[in-house]
DNA sequence: TGCTAAGCGGAACAAGGTTCCGTATCGTTA
DNA sequence: TAACGATACGGAACCTTGTTCCGCTTAGCA
């Protein structure tokens, strides 16, 4: 659930004052709404204005833009991570589980306008965002990859982190672009993993 | 030297004054050097300083940062475009020609720190850069793709532009990153194109 | 040797992220 | 319930980066 907004592993402590807690939630709500409308690159000032707070308030709750983005998508990243083992259990084969999970990840990325781009940016400001995604999801991917490799369905020489970054990269610029179907390209990539029977 | 420096298709006219021409060349040389050292995202001011000119001078010769980048890489993009037909003639099969050409393109991109990222950015400022690359290279790619599809070696449902963008995306963040081998991933993608014999 | 269009430099502007600090407010305590 | 100190707030100010503007300089021609 993560409902209480935090309490998770490396998350900042809940504010002591009720108004601060309210502002934090207003900020998360406003940011989520604006990210949908304008993408994750929306200016901090716009988010602050939508939440009815000053820019300083954003920075007290979220030390950088990247942390705000992480907080907004934390639930969904968690859900994606948790779907890994579930898919292993419910799929016909390890390869099918891998494909299903990657498809989930792709759906997540391409519905978040601009997220994929910011994720791969080598801009130091987004290092936190980058590592959060990777730390949480790479191990899940690694398990799926290992299982499929162990079953002899795919090559075993692709590092999980490389596959994740590749998939992430393929999702860049996919939102609402009629002549770029990221799903299809990721499909190609995953097909390329297969070993000949 | 950047020799003739222009005279190409849609290029701006050569300046009337000798000093202007010298500045333009100094700018191209300085930009090339800085792009190697700091990547294509280097600030305009740094490039101007390195060339020993004011920022205004950059903008007279290159209306935007993107046009400067285009000018710096024009030769290499041309060379890449021209390699397409050559590979078709010299390769064992259409599929081999396609693979060889894409490999050339990937080498070009990953040796240009940050170019791939800026290429795919949906930032309107780089639309010119984006379209220059696409206009010049997509037709070349299309021919290679068509030939391989006609020979029955690969699927025929992937639009050339999509493949190009996919390959470009996979090259993002590849420069000097030890745990991301873009060449390998592009190899996977191209392998995914194959039809079973 | 002048004249003038072409070209130059860099200050100024816009936009975006982040920091700072005086002020307002919460929540506790007397 | 009134006062007080810690907590939080707002938004002006700062920094960086792309781009524009404009008064001054100079190449090239007559």
Description:
The structure is a homodimer of 197-residue chains. Chain A is mainly alpha-helical. Chain A folds into 2 domains: 18-63, Homeodomain-like (Arc Repressor Mutant, subunit A, Orthogonal Bundle); 70-193, Tetracycline Repressor, domain 2, CATH 1.10.357.10. Helix content of chain A is 67%, strand content 0%. Chain A has 9 helices and no strands. Chain A has helices at 18-38, 44-51, 55-61, 65-90, 94-110, 115-120, 127-150, 160-170, 182-193. In chain A, helix 5 (94-110) runs antiparallel to helix 9 and helix 7 packs across helix 8 (160-170). The longest helix of chain A has 26 residues, at 65-90. Chain A is elongated and about 60 Å long. The model of chain A is unreliable at 1-11 (pLDDT under 50). Chain A binds chain B through residues 114, 117, 120-122, 158-159, 161-163, 165-166, 169-170, 172-173, 179-181, 184-185, 187-193, and chain B through 114, 117, 120-122, 158-159, 161-163, 165-166, 169-170, 172-173, 179-182, 184-185, 187-193. The structure holds a DNA duplex (30 and 30 nucleotides).
Topology:
The structure is a homodimer of 197-residue chains.
Chain A lengths: L17 H21 L5 H8 L3 H7 L3 H26 L3 H17 L4 H6 L6 H24 L9 H11 L11 H12 L4
Helix pairs in contact in A: 1-2, 1-4, 4-5, 4-7, 5-7, 5-9, 7-8
Chain A binds a DNA duplex (30 and 30 nucleotides) through helix 1, helix 2 and helix 3.
